[in-house]
Write a structure and sequence with these properties.
This protein has helices at 3-24, 48-61, 79-89, 112-116, 139-148, 164-171, 182-189, 210-213, 216-225, 235-240, 245-250, 259-267, 277-286, 326-340; strands at residues 35-41, 65-72, 97-99, 119-120, 123-124, 155-159, 190-196, 230-233, 242-243, 274-275, 294-295, 299-303, 309-313, 319-323. Helix content is 40%, strand content 17%. The chain has two domains: 1-31; 33-340, Ribonucleoside hydrolase-like (Inosine-uridine Nucleoside N-ribohydrolase, Chain A, Alpha-Beta Complex), CATH 3.90.245. The chain has 14 helices and 14 strands.
Length: 346
């Protein structure tokens, strides 16, 4: 029995063991409830979005989060099918998927069409329910419906793409789903936005980070008007933490074909390491207190008209950004590679 197959067998037993131990502990030490997570992504522009979604499924299999929805800011017909086939691969075909309408970056990118349409002997290689982006409902409607159904102050949003969907959510009016406006709904239901956005620190002054500069005005609105705390993972964090090619080559052999490995090969090539920009925002969203990152002092992130970002310290400010040291970089790399390659439990 190889390592990953053994993990697949043992992981449910470990989960039961943890639950039994928790039942014997005091109330203060009880196992936390899974993080109620919405994943907002520009899936297809980089492969780290797909890696981050796989990591979310691994964390969900461990009981650490519940994936409430995936909403997409890349306006490409294969983006929703790609998200859907990953959800199906990990046994969560029920997770709702919402698509941006009239969004930026409609191009296929390097892997969306290839993976979504791959076949074996005339059959689709990776089953899915969604055949094209038109089959998925509009993203803001999905966000409103999912948020309205959650307990107050319970939802964490991981945004690892453009700010299009969330900015539009803020502007959404009351409707049949909720009597609250979008801003009111966010303020009531969301406790944290973990965003891969911007670039911070003295060495990053003047850098125009891709997620910001590609759709500037929604990003400016988001950071100026979002009514809950925001923690940003800047470009410098994911760039410092590389997912190794060796992991991608060796850690997914529990299946003959893995959609993430194929996507990685098309996008980055299996001989090359990959920056983990989006994975860091997900890891912080689900495991904020594991010491993987330090935080800046509180303050306020400002997005300028040219797409650059700045941070101004402010007592009790609503924004912070992630910081890592060399030891944390090593720990985060190991955790991310472990989680990305974890076999599906379902």
């Amino acid at each position: 029995m190889n390592y990953h197959r053994a993990l697949r067998t043992v992981l449910p037993l470990l989960t039961v063991g943890i639950a039994l131990c928790a039942g014997a502990s005091t109330a203060a030490e009880a196992v936390r409830q899974p993080v109620r997570l919405i994943f907002d992504t520009d899936l297809g522009n980089d492969v780290d979005d797909a890696m981050a979604l796989c990591m979310i499924h691994a964390l969900a299999d461990r009981g650490e989060c519940e994936l409430l929805a995936v909403t997409i800011t890349k306006d490409n017909p294969y983006a929703a099918p790609m998200a859907d086939l990953l959800n199906v691969f990990y046994g969560r075909s029920e997770v709702p998927i919402g698509m941006v309408r009239g969004g930026v970056t409609p191009q296929d990118g390097r892997y969306l069409r290839q993976v979504a349409t791959a076949q074996d002997e005339g059959q689709v290689r990776y089953p899915r329910k969604i055949q094209t982006g038109d089959d998925a409902p509009e993203a803001v409607g999905v966000l409103r419906q999912v948020l309205a159904a959650q307990p107050d102050g319970s939802v964490v949003l991981a945004q690892v793409g453009f700010s299009t969907n969330l900015a539009r959510l803020l502007d959404s009016p009351a409707d049949d789903v909720s009597p609250l406006t979008g801003r009111e709904l966010v303020q009531r239901k969301v406790r944290l936005l973990s965003a891969m956005a911007g670039a911070f620190g003295e060495s990053m002054q003047g850098r125009k980070e891709y997620n910001i500069v590609t759709d500037v005005e929604p990003a400016r609105k988001l950071f100026a008007q979002w009514p809950t705390p925001i923690v940003a993972s800047g470009w410098e964090i994911g760039n410092a933490i590389k997912h190794t090619a060796r992991s991608m080559q060796e850690d997914y052999r529990y299946v003959q074909r893995h959609p993430l490995v194929e996507a990685y090969d098309y996008y980055r090539g299996l001989q090359n390491d990959q920056p983990t920009y989006d994975l860091t925002s997900v890891l912080y969203a689900v495991r904020p207190d594991r010491g993987y990152f330090d935080l800046s002092p509180p303050g306020r992130i400002v997005v300028e008209a040219d797409g650059t970002t700045s941070f101004r310290e402010e007592a009790n400010g609503p924004h912070r950004y992630l910081i890592v040291d060399p030891i944390q970089i090593a720990r985060v790399r190991e955790a991310q590679e472990w989680l990305c390659s974890q076999p599906p439990v379902k």
